[in-house]
Amino acid sequence: MGSMEPIASAQSIRDAEAAWFAAHPGGDLMGEAASAVSRTCAEVLATREHLGVLVVAGPGNNAGDALFAASELGELCERRVPLWVWPVVDSTHTDGLDSALAEGAVVVDAAAALTLCTGVGLVLDGVSGLGGRPGLPDAVAAVARAAHEAGVPVVAVDIPSGLVADSPVAHDSFVADVTVTFIARKLAHVAEPAASRCGRVELVDIGVAPPPVDTWRVTEADLRAWYPWPGPTSDKYARGVVGIDTGTATYPGAAVLGVSGALHAGAGMVRYAGPARAEVLRAFPSVVAPVDPAEPGRVQAWVCGSGWPGGDADRLARRVDDWVPMVLDAGALDGLPAELPDGSVLTPHAGELARLLGVERSAVEADPLGHARRAAAETGACVLLKGASQYAVAPDGTAILAEPGPAWTATAGSGDVLAGMLGTLLAAGVPSLWAAALAASLQARAAAALPGPHTPEEVAARSLPGVVAALRT
To answer: 325 by DSSP, 3-state: which?
Structure first.
């Protein structure tokens, strides 16, 4: 799958560790993990001299990593580091606790931990790991909240306790400044809103090969490789002719926005065949807009649905008849035909995906990736689920997380621009899964390069071309 970064499930990580131990009897993965955690803690403590560490320790191996890490800090920091250990249940990792006690650690109770957590150099979260349940016990939640409110750095082992590795939901949890994880990132590390609770994620190689996965995160190298760069023999037809049938007399702006996205993403030609012809031509004189939208000429992809007030079976059927890849946005998602052209992409947000599948929006928000996979399997189209994290999902279940964008992009019209960008990429022959992840990532980069409350068409016109060009330099 190119250079994409694998995103592993908790079970696949456990399987990879089991395979490693089978091949290395008596191997010490905990020692490797603890040393990595300790190095990170030492870096944090370097700016907080003379302060100690509170280890919040659960009953399992996650606590072992944290306790062994804490016991190495004195040597790394070249000073005595005061250590306090709060075992949140009756017992914790025995060998890890013995190691910390040998370095002078003091075992404390919940009340003392709540007092300490606002004045230490850092809190080391070793409560739960990949098998953790959502949320925190009340006493642990109080310590997590107090440390966060006091601005005390938190280093989490593997994942902030309270989050679920395979879920993007922001359960009640520690809010980490740094999360040290191993083998591969997990969904909670990269998908919002959980990702914001992980802080900076340090992925450490402890010698275990990443497991096979079906979920990936896009990299800059992917964007560069997937973009359809023009060559010396390219002409407007070779670069891709995208047809756009969006907007209405009531909502002409959706058409203008989609055309802007298509043009600034690099379309060779845009043919506009909708009711906002005058508005589109006024904004973009390079667009070809026939007087009779029923005869727009040949295109390599269609963009439909943006600005439609709802489903329009006849309007959609005209474009399906061309049997080229389609971007189906907004109104076009209502009343999809039984069969769509190969390479088509649906672009719902959570509410639209919920309506498409006949479920509650809250269900989609609790498991966006699972619902996007279901929609892709049922429709045979790629699904680009829009939101704070954007998931491109193929009918076979392969998923790619796009690059995240700034919160400024949460504005009306961003989806219309994105649909036009995606149409350009499909028309240029980019495979639908890559095109979806590429379009969403390029829009995110364009917004990040033009921070502040800019309109979607401003971002497309002023930032997107430069962002695309910069990929090559």
So the answer is: coil
DSSP letters spanning 329-369: -GGGGTT--S---TT-EE---HHHHHHHHTS-HHHHHHSHH
Cα 472 from Cα 461, distance rounded (Å): 19
- Taking the C-alpha atoms of residue 226 and residue 437, their distance in angstroms, rounded to an integer, is 10
**Integer Cα distance of 318 and 357 in angstroms:** 25
- Is pLDDT at 1 greater than 50 in this prediction? no
- The predicted model scores a pTM of 0.96
* Residue pair 406/450 in contact by the 8 Å Cβ criterion: no
- Residue-wise pLDDT tens digits, 293-322: 888 999 999 999 999 999 999 999 999 999
Apex CA 145: angle with CA 142 and CA 151, to 5°?
Answer: 140
Distance (Å, rounded) from C-alpha 8 to C-alpha 10? 7
Beta partners for 5?
217
Distance CA 132, CA 162 (A): 7
Q: Which residues contact 43 (CB under 8 A, 6 or more apart)?
A: none
Q: Quote the CA–CA distance of 62 and 126 in Å, as a whole number.
A: 5
Q: What is the mean pLDDT of residues 348-372?
A: 98
How does 145-161 read in b/e, with b if 16+ C-beta sit within 10 Å? bbbbeeebbbbbbbbbb
What's the pLDDT tens digit per position in 240-266?
999 999 999 899 999 999 999 999 999
Strands (E), 207-254: 215-217, 241-245
Q: Which CB contacts under 8 angstroms, 24+ apart, belong to 226-232?
A: 226/430, 226/434, 226/435, 226/437, 226/438, 227/266, 227/430, 227/438, 227/442, 227/468, 227/471, 228/266, 228/425, 228/428, 228/429, 228/430, 229/472, 230/266
Amino acid letter at 15? Answer: D
